[in-house]
Amino acid sequence: MFRNSRIPALALAALGPFVLVPPAHAGPTVGFIESFPGAGNTGGWDGGSNLSNPGTGGVGGAGDGYLVMAHTEFAGRLGTRNLGTDYIGDWLAAGADRVRFSLNDVGADQNLEIHFAIGNVENFWHCNLAFIPPNGAWAEFTVDLRDSANFTHIIANDGFGYRFALAHVDRVLIRHDVAPYVQTPNSILGQVGIDDFKIESTTVDVGDPPPGSGRRAVALAAPFPNPARGATTFAFEAFDDAPVSLAIVDARGRIVRAETLPGAPGLRRWTWDGRDDAGRTTAAGVYRVRAWGPAGGTSRPLVRID
Questions:
Q1: Are 150 and 128 in contact (CB under 8 A)?
Q2: Fewer CB within 10 Å of terminal CB in the chain, N or C?
Q3: Of 37, 54, 36, residue with least CA distance to 45
Q4: Are 185 and 175 in contact (CB under 8 A)?
Q5: How far apart are CA 218 and CA 295, in angstroms?
């Protein structure tokens, strides 16, 4: 298991498009795992949230630490970043095209939507797939980095695209956010646990999840069609017999349509006719669909047009 060692973030020179100073190290390593051992260890993660580590209660149970990011007294931008040597560098050259990490909605159920983002200060990409952590339990979530269509380009100052960003990573982020996605995350009152952050390659078999990683969350595919004028279909996969809850949420956070389906493992589909719970046609705009069960779930943005 690789452990983290840290140096200060590299400075960026204002030299037009080619602003990045090459990192003085080999960059990310496939097989790296950050497991936050020891109380108080935040592993070099920082940001505007309050960060802590209780030293116990992580994926491994008693005695296993984990990172907590929180705003518990007032709503704030819930997120954390890492600019350390385990994360910055050329992800393409390293063959790193997937990350996995475990999440836990600590305390009360807080309606969290957790995203991963990657790139650099001039060229930054936000994963459209949001993760809904289970309340008081751990679930592992996966981000596939191979397709830029799954990401929103929230900073585009250098004039280059997605692959260039992956080749010049100077930071990664984990944050709560809801569509539409911009440079700053949304504020929320809440706290989330993060554990066992892994850098992987899709060409390497990593085997089954380790004991203690929790049940698998409901996995939601991208809506089709999107944008849509009429009905939109959502494919999702459940991994246990628990009921699956679905909700269409507008840009102001209001649930306009909700449905609960009986539990059954496997791939299933749900079609939304574009109407709210009262049968009225919803207005054009940005929405998101949430699909979750007791083991957590996922959320996707969608757009309705006239």
A1: yes
A2: C
A3: 36
A4: yes
A5: 7
Q: Are 234 and 225 in contact (CB under 8 A)?
A: no
Residue 198 β-bridge partners: 33, 100
The dihedral through the CA atoms of 182, 86, 43, 12 has a sign that is: negative
Grouping H, G, I as helix, E, B as strand and the rest as coil, residue 286 is strand
- 10 Å Cβ neighbour count for 145? 22
Residue of 2, 25, 3, 22 whose CA lies nearest to 11 = 22
Q: What angle do CA 42, 75, 6 make, to 5 degrees?
A: 20
Cβ partners under 8 Å of residue 254, min gap 6? none
- Write out pLDDT tens, residues 171-227: 999 999 988 888 888 889 999 999 999 999 998 765 555 554 557 899 999 999 999
pLDDT of residue 26: 56
Q: Give the contacts of 147 (CB within 8 A, at least 6 positions apart).
A: none
Q: List domains and CATH numbers for the chain.
A: 33-200 (2.60.120.260), 219-304 (2.60.40.4070)
Give the pLDDT of residue 210. 52
Say what the pTM is. 0.86
β-strand partners of 272: 232
Encoded tokens for 140: 């592992």
Amino acid letter, residue 190: G
Is the CB of residue 304 less than 8 Å from the CB of residue 282? yes
| pLDDT tens track for 34-45 | 999 999 999 999
What separation in angstroms does the CA of 38 have from each of 42, 51, 53, 268? 9, 14, 8, 41
CA distances, 189 to each of 137, 266, 280 (Å) = 19, 34, 31
